Amino acid sequence: MTPDDYCQEKAAKSGSSFYYAFRFLPEHRRRAITAFYAFCREVDNIVDEVSDPALARMKLVYWRREIDALYVGTAQHPVMQALKPHVAPMLLPQSAFHTVIDGMQQDLEKTRYLNFAELSAYCYKAAGVVGEVSARIFGTSVPDNPNTLEYARTLGEALQLTNIIRDVGEDARRGRIYLPQDELDRFDVSSSALLRGTANAKFLELMNFQYDRAVKTYNRAHAALPAEDKRSQRTGLAMAAIYRALLEEIRRDGYRVLEHRVALTPIRKLWLAWKTVTFA
Q1: Percent helix / strand / coil, the chain, rounded to 5
Q2: pLDDT digits (tens, 9 = 90+) for 37-61
Q3: What is the mean pLDDT of the segment spanning 226-241?
Q4: Of 6, 54, 64, 22, which is closest to residue 236 (Cα–Cα)?
Q5: Which of 35, 89, 224, 251 has the most crowded Cβ, counting Cβ within 10 A?
Q6: Count of CA atoms in the C-beta half-sphere (13 A) of 264
């Protein structure tokens, strides 16, 4: 199995919405984003699947070493070998990969957020920087177009806010609450109620507030995207279309996120990606 094959298999098995958007990219960009996505999955799975925090930290240290090795040409992991041909031509910064690890590290050490400022800083590590790297891979009209990077960073936050809404129940069962504590207090929803899976009218008001903020974040992202990069960033727009559809599905479902995990069917994801890429 080649490094590219390894990354492709990793991406396909995940069933992620991102995988459907990648399918419409030119081959060299598809290989690059698939390798980057495989890296994100590798480190994210450490946090979600390794029950021993000490072992999880050791694994993240390994990945930090592989990042540094990538930039001097000595990386051994197939994901890093798949990334190697794309780092220099696409101007992928070493610091960005370490920031992704910082987000994973934070998941091991922090399970509550006092306010949205704290959560927003986390969202950058978990998703905003991923958006920036992805935008570079998709291509920009000028290197590191600041407006396009702002769009990508903001879109990453919007996707992460959608994930947080979708996974409220699942995260609570793992002992993590990403909804800011001051907002829980404002809507009179206790952390213990989330941990117990108890939903009421106040919880629905809280979730509607989260929904409104996510929608505004998507709108800010779209407004920031410069016209000259709209075509090259169609894959990101496809991701946005899929996640906005997911967000609407959660709202239509009555925010029953404490009961189950809402998901779109693969065919619907593929349709949304194709429609966006074709008509964007």
Answers
A1: 75, 0, 25
A2: 999 999 999 988 888 999 999 999 9
A3: 95
A4: 22
A5: 35
A6: 22
Placement of tokens 């906005």 in the chain:
244
Identify the burial level of 102 via C-beta atoms within 10 angstroms of its C-beta, where 0-12 means exposed, 13-18 middle and 19 or more buried: middle
As a whole number, mean pLDDT of residues 228-247 equals: 95
| CB-based contacts of 223, cutoff 8 Å, min separation 6 | none
AA identity, residue 89: P
What 8-state DSSP symbol labels residue 10?
A: H
CA 52-54-55 angle, to 5 degrees, is 65
Q: How many CB atoms lie under 10 A from the CB of residue 125?
A: 20
Q: DSSP 3-state assignment of 275?
A: helix
Amino acid at 46: I
Structure confidence by residue, pLDDT tens digits, 194-233? 988 888 999 999 999 999 999 999 999 999 999 999 999 9
Residue 236: the pLDDT is 94
